[in-house]
Write a structure and sequence with these properties.
Elements: E1 28-29, E2 34-35, H1 44-51, E3 54-55, H2 58-68, H3 74-77, E4 81-85, H4 87-95, E5 101-106, H5 118-131, E6 135-139, H6 141-147, H7 152-167, E7 176-180, H8 181-187, H9 189-199, H10 204-211, H11 219-229, H12 238-241, E8 248-253, H13 257-266, E9 276-280, E10 284-285, E11 288-292, H14 308-318, H15 327-333, H16 341-349, H17 353-365, H18 370-393, H19 397-404
Parallel strand pairs: 5-6, 5-8, 6-7, 8-9
Antiparallel strand pairs: 1-2, 3-4, 4-9, 10-11
Helix pairs in contact: 2-4, 6-7, 9-11, 11-13, 14-18, 16-18
Bound molecules: tryptophanyl-5'AMP (TYM).
Tryptophanyl-5'AMP binds near residues 256 and 292.
EC number: 6.1.1.2
Keywords: Aminoacyl-tRNA synthetase, ATP-binding, Cytoplasm, Ligase, Nucleotide-binding, Protein biosynthesis
Protein name: Tryptophan--tRNA ligase, cytoplasmic
Length: about 400
């Protein structure tokens, strides 16, 4: 078994069946659940060791900037994208003028996406502009039917709604193909054939180890990881790539890494390059960084469809405060930015480093109160949501159809 499946750095967490065991004091991160043992959230350095990925360090960012001839996106600069696999090889291909594509996705579990989803999709949009390359976006409506209390029809419909949220992030229709598994897998036999090639390489024992499946897991779930792996094989998209074997780069949050550890193990065995990955941290739930923001937990979540009033109420009512219990104490001791959710959210959305630093200084010294910090967050996020909703409202069924039609991309 390759190093992608067996964690060679910290293999104390693997049992004899290669099952990743979480010790009690460890964070739990898989594609369906994220729970941290600490109030400040997941320990990402430990996660890098456990998953066997590589840290995005200053040297890599410097190379990135040199290769693309411009500063990197603030999500990279601020360390939200903190881990990678084989990014160097993608940068080298770019330097050499060799092709590659981007691949990302969404599992439609709610009709609106949430602000946390903007993290991978914003970076994808930036990467598409910078690299001028094709992007494929998978809507795993099948995954959500299998894992959630949703019918085939419901998750398919949510996928179409989510596609509008994705398009509103500004993707170029000439370079982007969005597909629903329920539709596309029946449209192109090349996809299904590749899926079977992958399924033939992975045993039940391996997916038990990677995903924690057991004897009572429904068979649809057991087979599903191959569906998310298949877009990594460029020949699954004959309209875009023909029969050419082209590698891809996958931006996603680190919860999706188990799928791609499995995929990276399989690829060389069926004659394809391993996919490269860029992993981001989790946008935390409103109640605190112990869990990630999740579309199926309405109270922990700011949806892209929330009205300014809903946004204001949610932040004022639920956003966990790192401030002190009384104004007097707060003025004396100051607030804790590491715990404060409003400050943490600002780190994602406030692009001006100096302004953010000034807010941190004032909040930590007690000069700024929790209510005032929340107001800054509300004033920052309201225009983001309003603008998104305005753009989304203009996305007609025809535009959606254009993005979702299998076709040649520029
Ligand atoms: P899903 O719908 O859970 O999430 C979509 C993308 O958003 C990331 N994400 C988050 N990022 C930051 N903070 C959060 N709180 C947060 N919650 C989710 C996810 O990591 C993902 O990148 N199975 C996938 C769909 C999929 C996919 C892919 C994702 C299919 N192919 C390829 C990434 C790459 C899913 O259910 O994602």
């Amino acid at each position: 078994m390759s190093g992608d499946l067996v964690n060679n750095v910290n293999n104390v967490s693997l049992d004899e069946n290669h099952v990743l065991k979480n010790r009690k004091d460890e964070d739990h991160v898989d594609p369906w659940n994220v729970v941290s043992s600490s109030d400040t959230g997941v320990d990402y350095d430990k996660l890098i060791l456990r998953f066997g990925s590589s840290k995005i360090d200053d040297e890599l960012l410097a190379r990135f900037e040199k290769v693309i001839g411009q500063p990197v996106h603030h999500l990279l600069r601020r360390g939200f994208f903190f881990s990678h696999r084989d990014l160097h090889s993608i940068l080298t291909r770019y330097e050499q003028g060799k092709p590659f594509y981007l691949y990302t996705g969404r599992g439609p579990s709610s009709s609106s996406m949430h602000v946390g989803h903007l993290i991978p999709f914003s970076l994808c949009k930036w990467l598409q502009d910078v690299f001028n390359c094709p992007l494929v976006i998978q809507l795993t409506d099948d995954e959500k039917t299998l894992w959630k209390d949703l019918t085939v029809e419901e998750s398919y419909k949510m996928g179409l709604e989510n596609a509008k949220d994705i398009i509103a992030c500004g993707f170029d229709v000439n370079k982007t193909f969005i597909f629903s598994d329920f539709t596309y897998i029946g449209q192109r036999p090349e996809f299904y054939r590749n899926m079977i090639r992958i399924q033939k390489c992975v045993t039940f024992n391996q997916v038990k180890g990677i995903f924690g499946f057991d004897d009572s897991t429904v068979i649809g779930k057991i087979a599903f990881p191959a569906v998310q792996a298949t877009p990594v094989l460029s020949t699954s998209f004959p309209d875009i790539f023909g029969v050419k074997k082209i590698p891809c780069l996958i931006p996603c949050a680190i919860d999706q890494d188990p799928y791609f550890r499995m995929t990276r193990d399989v690829c060389p065995r069926i004659g394809f390059d391993k996919p490269a990955l860029l992993h981001c941290k989790f946008f935390p739930a409103l109640q605190g960084a112990k869990t990630k923001m999740s579309a199926s937990e309405a109270n922990s979540t700011i949806y892209m469809s929330d009205t300014p009033k809903q946004l204001k109420n949610k932040i004022n009512k639920h956003a966990f405060s790192g401030g002190q219990t009384t104004v007097e104490e707060h003025r004396k001791l100051g607030g804790n930015c590491d715990l404060d959710i409003s400050y943490q959210y600002l780190r994602f959305f406030m692009e001006d480093d100096n302004e953010l630093e000034e807010i941190k200084r004032k909040y930590s010294s007690g000069e700024l109160l929790t209510g005032e910090l929340k107001k800054i967050l509300i004033d920052t996020l309201t225009p983001v949501l309003t603008r998104h909703q305005e753009i989304r409202a203009k996305i007609t069924d025809e535009i959606l159809q254009n993005f979702m039609t299998p076709r040649k991309l520029c």
